[in-house]
Amino acid sequence: MRPRIVVIRSLAFAALLGTVACASMHVQTYVPRGANVRQYHTYAWAPAGAFETGDPRLDNNTLFIERLQSAVERQLARKGWAPVQAKEADVVVHFHARVDQRLDLAEKPGSGRPAEDSRGGPQVYDAGTLLLDFVEARSNTLLWRGWAEGSVDGVIDNQAWMNERIDAAVERILAAFP
Amino acid sequence: MRWTWTGRWTGVVLVVSMVGLGGCAARRVSAHVDPRADFTQFETFDWGPADALPAGDPRLDADGFFQDHMQGAVERQMLLKGYQRAAVGATPDVRIHFHAVIRERLDVDALDARRGVCSGHDCGPGVTQFEEGTLLVDVMDSRTNRLVWRGWAQDSVGDALENHDTLARRIEQGVQGLMKALPGRK
Predict the structure, then answer these.
(1) Cβ–Cβ of A122/B9 closer than 8 Å?
(2) Cβ-defined contact of A61 to B147 (cutoff 8 Å)
(3) Does CATH number 3.30.160 belong to domain B4-47+64-179?
(4) Do the Cβ atoms of A93 and A45 come closer than 8 Å?
(5) What local confidence, expressed as pLDDT, does residue A8 receive?
(6) Looking at the partner chain, which of B1, B9, B134 has a beta carbon nearest the beta carbon of A105?
(7) What residue spans define the domains of chain B?
(8) Distance between CA atoms of A143 and A32, rounded to whole angstroms?
């Protein structure tokens, strides 16, 4: 069975694909075939487990985790979802955050040849991924997955900026959520 | 994490292990703070369980040097900020955890070309690999057991791991820098 992949990219960000575009964010969602999250309206968070973010500044950082959770709760409330006790929840929400350093060779888009102008050349940056999974509590199967990827260079060192990026990422991930 | 190099961009000089030479990322310090925490309530501190977090690298865990110096540096900064060490047996207002993480990182250095490390018209910025150390200090509210402040300093540390004097100096500088952002009592 091949899963159906729904790719959502706003036009504004698609225009930046292939360039370094530090502020860009790519958002995608994935819905397994036959999954229907629309029938449900209550959720609970999955028990907090320790997970490796790949960045020591975020590992076990409850200030980061709480900000992320409150951003998700705000968006879900707007969509008519209600947080309930874990036993009563239709859906269990898992989140995952990851930061990896990437090396970008800054090739000119389309030309297939490396950029040799002054702005070109290799760049290293921190790429962040934020992922939300909605899992049916009864069957423990995935109903809906959404994630955002983008550069987070300098973001973690600036708490206000990080909070803005979390809010923006969560809002865009959940824009497609029923 | 392992990076592969395709060599397609001929102007790039990949310099491995040029720690401390090629303008590696400068020391950066920053912090996250719980916006709801009232730091005026906090007066006394003590250390969290020592075994809760290892130093993060076998080279730091090998002897007590890192732990001793880190603890000493943090304590000095806490006292300078007006906090007091909790009396023996008393419950402190905050518990402090610290640890270090060392990992391989890449940096792009445009200075190599200007320094004449490479020559010719195709000379471009170099990619250097270095060991980045992160010193982390966590302050937990001991009543709620919640994290209320986390500060960190990040710098390249390859040289410091080989030399105790350098390590001690870098710990002192890093802790001084990162603790600046902690709200003080005076």
Answers:
(1) yes
(2) yes
(3) yes
(4) yes
(5) 34
(6) B9
(7) 4-47+64-179
(8) 7
